[in-house]
Amino acid sequence: MLEVGTRTGRVSMVAAETLRTLCEGTMLRGLLRIAILSTAWMTILALLSVVALRWVPPPTTSFMIAERIRAPSQKIEYDWVPWSQISPQAALAVVASEDQRFPRHRGFELGATRRALAHWWHGEKTRGASTITQQVAKNLFLWPGRSAVRKVLEGALTVVIETLWSKQRILEIYLNVAQLGPGTFGVEAASRRYFRKDASKLTASEAALLAVVLPNPERLRVDRPSPYVLRRRAWVLKQMNRLGGTAYLRELDGVERSRQAPRAKRAAERGASGS
To answer: Domain of 91: which CATH number?
Structure first.
């Protein structure tokens, strides 16, 4: 009798263990399914947003949301202004400081990436190798910090943005959403906060100072520039002159015309074949 009871107990334990394993497997499959569906929906939403933002200003960004969570009591200053109301000096300054090959690449600067990887391999401190387009993707849709997952998503969004937006639109959005101080996003809000003027009236020196703080607006301050910030501003001003001044921005128009030419040619060929 005792032996039968023991066997029954063992069978019950095995059955319970089997049931628990099945439940855990079902739960894991359910969680995996939810994760895949969530990722798919987030990807679709991001793609639709990229299409819409080709024409409409972003109401907010993931970095603004993160700032609200990090400092709930801090007011977010964000005032969208169109390209025509931004000083050309501001556009030139961020290109000179962050991404001098911006008009020429398609979202990725392989040379800068290779240099950053080489510095990392040798244990040296690296400066970000992200292009302006990659930073736009990160600021709009992703999160602060570094991770492989974020870089993969950033790369995919960069390809879509470069395909759907003009270079001028990419730079226009970057100038409007980049963080330039605690709770301060975009050149209009920064210009009013630090210089008491509209972004359209920024001088080269003021624009260079704003561009310098972009890598780390919490540590590098416009209102209290450190010796490093002042040296960096002088370097940016030299780079702006070396690029040829605001005339350098005309390359953006040339890039757009070169992108549109193949499309116009294909449309003309289709029209000719149809007739």
So the answer is: 1.10.3810.10
